[in-house]
Specification:
Length: 500
């Protein structure tokens, strides 16, 4: 009798639960990669909206009368280029482009706080599908401005605001889903790998947008819009919200809890819900947690404020790096966009490395703190070395990508999932969406401020932008100091206990 085919033997090596987890991992990875794929085009197209092709007119001063006739048109042509896209052809184009980023990110920050609360009260599959369809529409809407020759600044701002609001449906939904399926034992590594969807989406978005940016930049938005809407159909057809929906087992109930965020005398001494009289009162409560209740979970406030500054740095790179490379390396928009993907490649390795280290040390805050401490001086080195040559820029993009995105990735994934399933909640997994939204929503405030500040500071020199980013990294580290101290103290207490 012939043996089983190799493929079948491979399939039977894994249990049904393992296959379901792998499927959920891959599906949620692809879903959120499509969100970032649709966010990236704006940073690539900036170089095309204003191409630095202004050429001042040469005036022949034959008579004063001829000069008086010519002077008004000359002023207009000096500030408005014949090859840029109106209204971004003005001399204050950096502020106008920054306004696009600010519009999207402000809407995203405000919408995120609401999204987590709404998401807990609706089926994730329906909520995420609707958000992906709407996001596809508003992403493509920006590109329609090219095809319909629209030159109103408000049209582009409103497209960004609408897209920012609907994109908030993505993160709380996918983190809740992946948190339901994977426990805390190796959550740092698993979510470090999973969170590479951010960088993969950015890379694909850069390549897709860069393909059309110099010929038909409208397609740089329309194609990603169609992509995310198509993934919305996949989400509706295949997403499984919780293991119990397909009679699979959850690993979260048997995982050890993180217990070093606070000293023993501070753990669960305050009830998360005034109506429930303490930690025990939450055990049987299955309703969605309140906003204030989520804030009382140990570590939520500190990690939220840390993420505010960490995300400020990350999103400044996301929206302004291609333009910076264009100015410093003197490359066209497509080549600058392609080169900027190296920052995201470094981010993939940084997220995985942060997850591995935090799993081994069992210290999320300390891991973030170490990477933030190294990131600040590295940014200064990048600002200096990037002007020295193409090869140096490549190396520094990879290193900065790892150090900047490592803490950001760890906080938005493993830390959010840990806090959303904190032991003080006694198994109430419905808090996960709200906790995730609070942390990422606060981070999104920084994400809105970063590109705005970059737009204001860049006219005075790119060095000022990098100084701002270094200060932001230092502030992010500052908000983690108490948690780092408690983690190290907890480790010392365990060591002393073993010695005696």
């Amino acid at each position: 009798m012939a043996g089983l085919p190799p493929g079948i033997r491979l399939i039977t090596l894994f249990t049904r639960d393992q296959w379901c987890r792998a499927f959920t991992f891959v599906l949620t990875f692809m879903l959120y990669a499509s969100f970032h794929l649709s966010r990236k085009p704006i940073s690539i197209v900036k170089g095309e909206l204003h191409k630095h092709c202004n050429t001042p007119n040469v005036i022949e001063h034959k008579t004063y009368k001829e000069y008086a006739i010519q002077i008004q048109p000359v002023k207009r042509l000096f500030n408005e280029s014949r090859c840029d896209w109106e209204p971004f052809d003005k001399s204050n184009y950096k502020q106008l482009l920054g306004a696009l980023d600010y519009s999207f990110l402000c809407a995203y920050a405000v919408g995120m706080y609401l999204s987590g609360i709404i998401g807990e009260r609706l089926p994730i599959r329906y909520y995420l599908t609707g958000g992906m369809f709407a996001s596809g529409l508003f992403t493509a809407m920006f590109g329609f401005g090219y095809f319909y020759n629209i030159h109103s600044l408000w049209f582009y701002i409103m497209a960004q605001v609408a897209n920012g609001l609907v994109q908030t449906t993505g993160w709380p939904s996918v983190v809740t889903c992946i948190g339901n399926w994977f426990g805390k034992g190796r959550r740092g590594l698993i979510m470090g790998l999973w969170n590479s969807h951010t960088s993969v989406g950015n890379i694909l978005g850069s390549l897709i947008a860069g393909y059309w940016v110099s010929t038909c930049w409208g397609l740089s938005f329309v194609v990603p819009g169609i992509t995310i809407a198509s993934m919305g159909i996949v989400c509706f057809l295949f997403l499984i919200e919780h293991p119990k929906d397909v009679n699979c087992t959850s690993t979260s109930s048997n995982d050890p809890e993180m217990h070093c965020l606070l000293p023993d005398n501070e753990r669960c001494t305050k009830p998360l819900n005034p109506n429930n009289g303490g930690c025990e009162g939450i055990e049987n409560r299955k309703s969605a947690i309140s906003f204030s209740g989520a804030l009382r979970i140990p570590g939520v406030v500190e990690f939220s404020l840390c993420l505010l500054f960490a995300k400020l740095v990350s999103y400044t790179f996301l929206f302004w790096l291609p333009l910076y490379i264009t100015n410093v390396e003197h490359l066209d928009a497509k080549k600058a966009g392609d080169l900027s993907t190296l920052f995201d490649v470094g981010g993939i390795f940084g997220g995985i490395l942060a997850g591995i280290i935090s799993d081994r040390l069992k210290k999320r805050a300390t891991t973030c703190g170490m990477m933030l401490l190294i990131a600040a001086p590295t940014l200064y080195v990048f600002s200096a070395i990037s002007k020295m040559g193409f090869e140096a820029t490549i190396v520094m993009l990879l290193i900065c990508g790892a150090l900047v995105n490592g803490p950001y990735a760890l906080i938005t994934t493993a830390v959010s999932a840990d806090l959303g399933t904190h032991k003080s909640l006694k198994g109430n997994a419905r808090a996960l969406s709200t906790v995730t939204a609070i942390i990422d929503g606060t981070g999104s405030v920084g994400a809105a401020l970063g590109p705005l500040l970059a737009g204001l500071l860049s006219p005075s020199g790119w060095n000022n932008v990098f100084y701002m980013l270094m200060i932001a990294d230092a502030c992010a580290l500052l908000f983690l100091l108490r948690l780092i101290r408690n983690e190290l103290r907890c480790n010392l207490d365990h060591t002393l206990f073993k010695e005696h």
